[in-house]
């Protein structure tokens, strides 16, 4: 029997934070009450630490992905997934205990093509709170959120998965494509606001609690200089961990 859910976790050198995510997934799986209905896939992106060993020790399936593009890592995990519903979550997150129950109920209604759980932060400060508040209106307007992103496997395949040509914002464009597909069937994106993940603040820990506002200008310059990967390498692809 194929599992109901496949959870895909993209991971690069996540030995420090991956265990707490896996522990939170175990609690959510227990709450769902059907352990065999949930498979967990760690898409290991050339890690040099114990990421893969930790995943296997927690009975996860490990998908080895060499291409250093986050969309390719997500797709690599999805390629071996057997579940009816695909879920994607970052390795530094912690999922809510009711995650699978909430996603199951949303998709069973037939009204939603997919969606996301949203996120709260593991710690707060003035800078983090203002950053969060800056992003909230866009979430309200677009109905596109972060956290655990989910959809049916056939719909993932129908939109071609994540765009591997994008170094960043592949998650946003994935939801755009999913929303477009849903509109052809009268379906919407769902925000599961009662089942938010706890998001890591390690980017704030590394770059400062107010760094996001300077980051916006750097990101805009990056978009105008398509061949220059200095910004993405420093912020996403060559992290100090």
Could you characterize what this model shows?
Strands 3-2-1-4-7-5-8 form a 7-stranded mixed β-sheet, with helices on both faces. The protein has a two-stranded parallel sheet with strand order 6-9. The chain has 241 residues and is an alpha/beta fold. It has helices spanning 18-32, 51-57, 70-79, 99-108, 126-142, 153-158, 170-183, 202-207, 211-224, 230-237, and strands spanning 5-11, 38-44, 61-64, 85-88, 112-116, 119-121, 149-152, 188-191, 197-199. It is globular, with a radius of gyration of 17 Å.
Give the amount of beta strand, in percent.
15-25%
Distance between the termini: 39 Å
Q: Whole-number radius of gyration?
A: 17 Å
Helix percent band: 40-55%
- This entry's quaternary arrangement is single chain
CATH hierarchy: architecture: Alpha-Beta Complex
> What is the general shape?
globular
Tally of structural domains: 1
Q: How is the CATH topology named?
A: Spore Coat Polysaccharide Biosynthesis Protein SpsA, Chain A
Q: What count of helical segments does DSSP give?
A: 10
- Output the structural class: alpha/beta
Q: Can you identify the CATH superfamily? A: Spore Coat Polysaccharide Biosynthesis Protein SpsA, Chain A
Return the CATH class.
Alpha Beta
Poorly predicted parts: none
SSE order in H/E notation?
Answer: EHEHEHEHEEHEHHEEHHH
Summarize the biggest pleated sheet.
Answer: 7 strands, mixed
Report mean pLDDT, rounded to a whole number.
93
Query: How are the strands of the biggest sheet laid out side by side?
Result: 3-2-1-4-7-5-8
- Find the count of extended strands (DSSP E, 2+ residues): 9
């Amino acid at each position: 029997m194929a599992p109901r859910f496949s959870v895909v976790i993209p991971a690069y050198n996540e030995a420090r934070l991956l265990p707490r995510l896996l522990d939170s997934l175990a609690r959510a799986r227990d709450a769902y009450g059907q352990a065999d209905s949930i498979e967990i896939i760690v898409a290991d992106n050339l890690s040099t630490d114990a990421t893969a060993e930790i995943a296997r020790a927690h009975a996860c399936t490990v998908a080895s992905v060499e291409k250093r593009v986050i969309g390719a890592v997500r797709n690599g995990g999805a390629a071996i997934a057997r579940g009816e519903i695909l879920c994607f979550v970052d390795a530094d997150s912690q999922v809510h205990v009711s995650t699978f129950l909430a996603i199951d109920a949303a998709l069973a209604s037939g009204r939603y093509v997919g969606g996301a759980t949203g996120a709260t932060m593991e710690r707060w400060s003035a800078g983090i709170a203002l950053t969060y508040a800056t992003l909230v209106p866009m979430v309200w307007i677009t109905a596109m959120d972060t956290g655990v992103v989910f959809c049916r496997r056939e719909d993932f395949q129908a939109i071609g998965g994540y765009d591997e040509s994008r170094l960043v914002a592949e998650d946003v464009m994935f939801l755009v494509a999913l929303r477009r597909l849903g509109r052809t069937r009268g379906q919407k994106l769902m925000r599961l606001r009662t089942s938010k993940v706890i998001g890591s603040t390690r980017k704030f820990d590394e770059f400062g609690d107010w760094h996001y506002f300077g980051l916006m200008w750097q990101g805009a310059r990056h978009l105008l200089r398509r061949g220059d990967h200095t910004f993405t390498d420093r912020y996403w692809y060559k992290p100090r961990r």
